[in-house]
């Protein structure tokens, strides 16, 4: 495939606007997969993706397409749409020259449509605007065209209209991909080999079957050629490897001998350590001196690497939680599982942590709670390592000022006043400093965009206010919808704001946010005591104005979530050692077995078994059983 016949593109859209369905149709129309009823979201390979019907990881497929008497190679990269996964979107566009901007013809432009548009726009990619679901009775193509025109300044004549479900218009879309998107730019096949590593993962099955050792790398070849048997070297680590396999995804793996500049594909090369396959790294031939591809940064602070621009994703938009194995002897298995998943997702931050009650574990930073939830589900489903997750927290900035009187030299009485300033980040409430008088606390802020039908504005205003939101802007988007811009403290919106927004707007409002820096604020730590013992894993940070209310709420929530035990449990919320709220859970009197009439052995066995299964979902803290979802549940409304 000469460069002129290659097109690399991805599909970007708000969630549920039909990306995965469109990918299926494109694969069918070009013969990459057979047309049949079973082909539902073939690129969504992970179990969590199938169960929840959302795309979590970007997946790729190479497609062969005949047009104008020429054979084209189209490389399609499917991207996730949820706000938590925008990192994957940026990564996908790094290997692309164009995108399909898909908009549901009934729902119109939504918050993530806007966010994704800007990722593509600032990367200077060709954008093909497409209205999807025109088969729907209530599709409003004229209205949505108008919207796209005003919001994105896009020429209405360039907008295509399709039904991904029925395949209408998808042929014309394929033609537009070839006609409008340029072939890979800045590629030189006669130059020394250079490739961008833009994704990598670990194939457990293949390793077990001894087909392969180590990590699979997805690469975009920018210059030169790479063949099986070549020695490649990582620019970043300096380590070199022999290329064992090369393949393209169609979407199944098809082994090939080499890849040329402009192409994307996967390779394996006995890269064993997850830390050796860093997203954004440049591969070159062993021993050759080359310019690294632009944009590589150490994963912390995290950077999203694109060929054309660099987006730095700041740490402070992350949500942190402690992750611990349910059984302490699963420690090593969990370590391996976490390493494999993070290899694949460098937006996850990782450090070791330990807790008195839960033992040895990890502090893990995510882009949001859905991201966290999906990560934990994958740990359990794909690696068989269920976990306990502690109460999530954002990362706060603390400035500590200590004034010291230092005696002047020579003179015994005179002193100089010296101020020492120390700045640090706390993302674990257990590490909150106790010298309240000396510290200033800063919390991370988020600038949020909410798009909603006008009718729900009255419901949304109070929930924004309750979460300490500050209105920045509110204006009409079109005749029926309003766009609201708010500044929120991040910790007020990470846990369940999106759920609440959906429920007060009958599911119509959409939401996206970006970072807005740190702001000085007045925060306190609320500790939770169970029978007088501080359970630091349950403690959390709140704004002082809310301490009383939230303390009470958490106590009540614990009464609801903690199972009754054989003894009474006193729950107290404390600030320093002052009790601000308390509740009690009464003891259960009867043993579960007391319910069985003597002699019925099977019934007794069943009950015992059920009790044992229930225990697996529990964690003992002191002598109290805590269901493992308690830590997150307490923060929800
Ligand atoms: P994604 O989240 O953007 O990947 O969206 P999906 O491809 O998973 O589609 C979301 C839902 O919209 C699914 O129930 C699809 O069947 C449906 N859908 C997608 N395209 C069309 C279309 O052209 N017409 C209709 N009526 N439904 C569609
Ligand atoms: Mg999808």
From TrEMBL:
<dbReference type="InterPro" id="IPR035654">
    <property type="entry name" value="LepA_IV"/>
</dbReference>
<dbReference type="InterPro" id="IPR038363">
    <property type="entry name" value="LepA_C_sf"/>
</dbReference>
<dbReference type="Pfam" id="PF06421">
    <property type="entry name" value="LepA_C"/>
</dbReference>
<dbReference type="InterPro" id="IPR013842">
    <property type="entry name" value="LepA_CTD"/>
</dbReference>
<feature type="binding site">
    <location>
        <begin position="132"/>
        <end position="135"/>
    </location>
    <ligand>
        <name>GTP</name>
    </ligand>
</feature>
<dbReference type="GO" id="GO:0005743">
    <property type="term" value="C:mitochondrial inner membrane"/>
</dbReference>
<keyword id="KW-0547">Nucleotide-binding</keyword>
<keyword id="KW-0472">Membrane</keyword>
<comment type="similarity">
    <text>Belongs to the TRAFAC class translation factor GTPase superfamily. Classic translation factor GTPase family. LepA subfamily.</text>
</comment>
<dbReference type="InterPro" id="IPR006297">
    <property type="entry name" value="EF-4"/>
</dbReference>
<dbReference type="Pfam" id="PF00679">
    <property type="entry name" value="EFG_C"/>
</dbReference>
<keyword id="KW-0496">Mitochondrion</keyword>
<dbReference type="InterPro" id="IPR031157">
    <property type="entry name" value="G_TR_CS"/>
</dbReference>
<dbReference type="GO" id="GO:0006412">
    <property type="term" value="P:translation"/>
</dbReference>
<dbReference type="InterPro" id="IPR009000">
    <property type="entry name" value="Transl_B-barrel_sf"/>
</dbReference>
<protein>
    <recommendedName>
        <fullName>Translation factor GUF1 homolog, mitochondrial</fullName>
        <ecNumber>3.6.5.n1</ecNumber>
    </recommendedName>
</protein>
<dbReference type="InterPro" id="IPR005225">
    <property type="entry name" value="Small_GTP-bd"/>
</dbReference>
<dbReference type="GO" id="GO:0003924">
    <property type="term" value="F:GTPase activity"/>
</dbReference>
<dbReference type="GO" id="GO:0045727">
    <property type="term" value="P:positive regulation of translation"/>
</dbReference>
<dbReference type="InterPro" id="IPR000795">
    <property type="entry name" value="T_Tr_GTP-bd_dom"/>
</dbReference>
<dbReference type="GO" id="GO:0097177">
    <property type="term" value="F:mitochondrial ribosome binding"/>
</dbReference>
<feature type="binding site">
    <location>
        <begin position="13"/>
        <end position="20"/>
    </location>
    <ligand>
        <name>GTP</name>
    </ligand>
</feature>
<feature type="binding site">
    <location>
        <begin position="78"/>
        <end position="82"/>
    </location>
    <ligand>
        <name>GTP</name>
    </ligand>
</feature>
<feature type="domain" description="Tr-type G">
    <location>
        <begin position="4"/>
        <end position="185"/>
    </location>
</feature>
<keyword id="KW-0648">Protein biosynthesis</keyword>
<dbReference type="GO" id="GO:0005759">
    <property type="term" value="C:mitochondrial matrix"/>
</dbReference>
<dbReference type="GO" id="GO:0005525">
    <property type="term" value="F:GTP binding"/>
</dbReference>
<dbReference type="Pfam" id="PF00009">
    <property type="entry name" value="GTP_EFTU"/>
</dbReference>
<keyword id="KW-0378">Hydrolase</keyword>
<comment type="similarity">
    <text>Belongs to the GTP-binding elongation factor family. LepA subfamily.</text>
</comment>
<dbReference type="InterPro" id="IPR027417">
    <property type="entry name" value="P-loop_NTPase"/>
</dbReference>
<keyword id="KW-0999">Mitochondrion inner membrane</keyword>
<keyword id="KW-0342">GTP-binding</keyword>
<comment type="function">
    <text>Promotes mitochondrial protein synthesis. May act as a fidelity factor of the translation reaction, by catalyzing a one-codon backward translocation of tRNAs on improperly translocated ribosomes. Binds to mitochondrial ribosomes in a GTP-dependent manner.</text>
</comment>
<dbReference type="InterPro" id="IPR000640">
    <property type="entry name" value="EFG_V-like"/>
</dbReference>
<dbReference type="InterPro" id="IPR035647">
    <property type="entry name" value="EFG_III/V"/>
</dbReference>
């Amino acid at each position: 495939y000469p460069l002129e016949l290659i097109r690399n593109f991805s599909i970007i859209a708000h969630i549920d606007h039909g990306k995965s369905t469109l990918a299926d149709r494109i694969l069918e129309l070009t013969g990459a997969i057979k047309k049949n009823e079973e082909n539902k979201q073939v690129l969504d390979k992970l179990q969590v993706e199938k169960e929840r019907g959302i795309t979590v990881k970007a997946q790729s497929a190479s497609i062969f397409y005949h047009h104008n008497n020429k054979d084209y190679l189209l490389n399609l990269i499917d991207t996730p749409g949820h706000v938590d996964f925008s990192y994957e979107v940026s990564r996908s566009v790094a290997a692309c020259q164009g995108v399909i901007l898909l908009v549901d013809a009934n729902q119109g432009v939504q918050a993530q449509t806007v966010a994704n548009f800007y990722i593509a726009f600032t990367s200077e990619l060709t954008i093909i605007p497409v209205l999807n679901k025109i088969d729907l009775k209530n599709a409003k193509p004229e209205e949505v065209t108008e919207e796209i025109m005003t919001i994105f300044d896009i020429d209405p004549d360039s907008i295509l209209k399709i039904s991904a479900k029925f395949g209408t218009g998808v042929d014309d879309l394929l033609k537009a991909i070839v006609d409008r998107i340029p072939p890979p730019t800045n590629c030189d096949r006669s130059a020394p080999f250079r490739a961008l590593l833009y994704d990598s993962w670990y194939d457990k099955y293949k390793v077990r079957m001894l087909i392969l050792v180590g990590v699979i790398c997805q690469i975009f070849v920018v210059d030169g050629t790479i063949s099986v048997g070549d020695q490649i070297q990582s620019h970043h680590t300096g380590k070199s490897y022999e290329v064992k396999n090369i393949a393209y995804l169609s979407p199944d793996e098809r082994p090939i001998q080499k890849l040329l500049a402009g192409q994307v594909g996967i390779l394996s090369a006995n890269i064993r350590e997850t830390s050796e396959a860093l997203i954004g790294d440049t591969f070159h031939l062993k021993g050759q001196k080359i310019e690294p591809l632009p944009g590589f940064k150490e994963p912390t602070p995290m950077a999203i690497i694109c060929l054309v621009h660099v987006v730095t994703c700041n740490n402070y938009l992350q949500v942190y939680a402690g992750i611990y194995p349910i059984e302490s002897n699963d420690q090593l298995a969990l370590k391996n599982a976490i390493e494999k998943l993070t290899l694949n997702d460098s937006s996850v931050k990782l450090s070791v942590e330990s807790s008195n009650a839960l033992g040895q574990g990890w502090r893990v930073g995510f882009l949001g709670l859905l991201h966290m939830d999906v990560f934990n589900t994958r740990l359990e489903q794909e690696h068989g390592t269920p976990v306990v997750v502690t109460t999530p927290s954002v990362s706060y900035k603390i400035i500590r000022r200590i004034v010291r009187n230092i005696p002047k030299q020579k003179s015994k009485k005179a002193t100089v006043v010296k101020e020492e300033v120390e700045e640090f980040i706390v993302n674990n409430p257990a590490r909150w400093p106790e010298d309240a008088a000396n510290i200033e606390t800063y919390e991370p802020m988020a600038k949020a965009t909410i798009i909603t039908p006008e009718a729900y504005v009255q419901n949304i205003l109070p929930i924004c206010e309750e979460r300490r939101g500050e209105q920045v802007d509110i204006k009409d988007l079109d005749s029926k919808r309003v766009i609201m811009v708010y500044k929120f403290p991040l910790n007020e919106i990470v846990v369940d704001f999106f759920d609440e927004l959906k429920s007060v707007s009958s599911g119509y409002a959409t939401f996206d946010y970006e970072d807005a820096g740190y702001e000085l604020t007045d925060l306190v730590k609320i500790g939770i005591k169970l029978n007088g013992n501080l359970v630091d894993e349950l403690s959390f940070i709140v704004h002082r104005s809310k301490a009383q209310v939230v303390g009470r709420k958490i106590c009540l929530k614990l009464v609801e979530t903690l199972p009754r035990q054989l003894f009474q449990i006193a729950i107290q919320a404390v600030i320093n050692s002052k009790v601000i709220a308390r509740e009690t859970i009464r003891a259960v009197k009867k043993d579960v077995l007391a319910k069985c009439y003597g002699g019925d052995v099977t019934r007794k066995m069943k009950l015992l078994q059920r009790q044992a299964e229930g225990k697996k979902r529990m964690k003992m803290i002191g002598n109290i059983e805590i269901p493992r979802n308690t830590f997150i549940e307490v923060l929800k409304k």
